[in-house]
Amino acid sequence: MPSTLEQLSPTRVKLTIELPFSELKPALDKAYQEIGGQVTVPGFRKGKVPARVIDQRFGRGAVLEQAINSALPEAYASAVEEHKLVPLGQPDVDVTKLEDGDLVEFTAEVDVRPEFDLPDFSAVSAEVPVLEVADTELDDRLETLRQRFATTTEVDRAAAEGDVVTLDLVGKQNGELLDEASANGVTYKLGAGGMLDGLDEAATGLKAGETATFTSTLVGGAHKDEEAEIELTVTKVAEQELPELDDEFAQMVSQFDTVEEMKADLSDAIVRQARLKQATDARDKVLEAVLEQTDFELPEAVVTADFEARQQQINTQLAQAGLTLERYLEEAEEEANNAEDFWATIQKRSLDALRAQVVLDKLADEDEIGVEQEELTQLIFSKAAQSGSTPEQEMQHMMEHNHTQEWMLEVRRNKALTKIVNAAKITDADGKVIDLTKLGQDGNLVNEDAEDEAAEAPAPKKSAAKASAADAPVVPANVKPTKSTKKAKDDEAEDDEA
Fold it and tell me: 464 vs 245, 442, 459, CA distance in Å?
């Protein structure tokens, strides 16, 4: 079918498409069949009503409208492919000519990916922090393990630092009870911190049943940063006993027979985590550098729609959590201090994410990057691990909410980004070249030079080491994945995020 292209702007085009009736005939036949099966005409069985009778009774126009609406998507898709366009939104379609029995002409205006050149990725460079592991990291993890498996024994004595106490708290201002500063049965380890200032001092030295009063500044709620009088009652004092760090403990919390083996595995996990964190930083900085070297504009409508979808999603999540944006900004660790700055930050993130998607999609198209079933399966397992669900649940979610294409696109973009990162030059702050092709998904080094690099990798000075199921999760991710408008709306409906 003939079609012409008019470039309205760098990001918007107008297609004019002619659809001859010879190509419209299958859609016309189907329209007559469907209408004939739905109507009742005396003297004719359903589905056997002749076309001329349908024209007389219901009008030729109704049939043409149904046939044209049915044929337009395929005709539009064919024209998009012919002119090698990458639409970034839905087209505005208008039938401009209808000559019954001859042809249908329609136009489709649509926002498209602009033309631009990708930079030479081998010329892209990025610097990341030096791979470092704190000397105290291993000790901290071992202490966390011991705390997790500690036992407590109720004692009849005054509470001291390190004891676990059960408290009833009653907060008041000017004699008026504050519900948000009151609670019963609060368990707290004296000296741990993180609660009200003055609580440790007030509770230390009290036995079960004894009460003390102190003044403290509230850290949350409607009276945040205001002073209140807190009445504290100790209802239980328990002594905490940490397990010995020995072979028996190692066998209880891990798959190892000795504590030295467990330490070795923990140390190894710490180093792997550091490598993966460094790799995440590298990917982010390489992509930032590529975007800085890539000049193109995005359609305003696409940018606005993505930002509004994010804005709506955030507002919905705040409402579900019972928070206003102002209250959220007071309590959260956000850089923005007010709503205007917060939305400006979200708007920038939205634009940066869209630009990144366009660059990665262009590279994937040019290099014909595909997605294998195994790669989609790996993504499903990864999403399950991140959300604490099962692969089966993630698979069901994907099918129920039509995320298959979106998740395949996510895999494709990740592969494109990996290709960029592997071509770029990455160094640490000391000038050492970082080769991410030698880094496995678990943080282990792979390929022929792995042993040499492993020998250079830092490890805690206490012991080099191996760990267990008790190991902390590897790789905290600071990078927030970009969601499409459709995904954002789906997640909004599902209450997936708080």
Answer: 16, 18, 6
Q: Tell me, letter by letter, the H, E, C secondary structure of 296-343.
A: CCCCHHHHHHHHHHHHHHHHHHHHHCCCCHHHHHHHCCCCCCCHHHHH
Cβ 100 vs Cβ 4: under 8 Å? no
DSSP one-letter string for 155-223: -SS---TT-EEEEEEEEEETTEEEEEEEEEEEEEETT--SS-TTHHHHHTTPPTT-EEEEEEE--SSTT
CATH 3.10.50.40 assigned to 151-241: yes
Domains 3-111 and 151-241 share a fold: no
Q: What is the 3-state secondary structure (H, E, C) of 250-312?
A: HHHHCCCCCHHHHHHHHHHHHHHHHHHHHHHHHHHHHHHHHHHCCCCCCCHHHHHHHHHHHHH
pLDDT score recorded for residue 194: 81
Q: Which of 281-285, 365-369, 382-386, 475-479 has the lowest mean pLDDT?
A: 475-479
Q: Considering just the CA atoms, what is the radius of gyration of the chain in Å?
A: 32
pLDDT score of 462 more than 90: no
Whether residue 83 is predicted with pLDDT greater than 70 in this model: the reply is yes
What pLDDT score was predicted for residue 57?
Answer: 77
pTM of the entire structure?
Answer: 0.73
**If 0-12 CB within 10 Å is exposed, 13-18 middle and 19+ buried, where does residue 348 land?**
exposed
pLDDT at res. 481: 32
Would you kindly state where each structural domain of the chain is located, as residue ranges?
A: 3-111, 151-241, 259-494
For 76, counting Cβ atoms within 10 Å of its Cβ (0-12 exposed, 13-18 middle, 19+ buried), the class is: buried
CB 420 within 8 A of CB 121: yes
Bridge partners of 105, per DSSP, are 18, 97
470: pLDDT strictly greater than 60: no
Secondary-structure class of domain 3-111 per CATH: alpha beta
pLDDT the model gives residue 28: 87
Pick the CATH number of 259-494 from 3.90.25.10, 2.40.420.20, 3.40.50.300, 1.10.3120.10: 1.10.3120.10
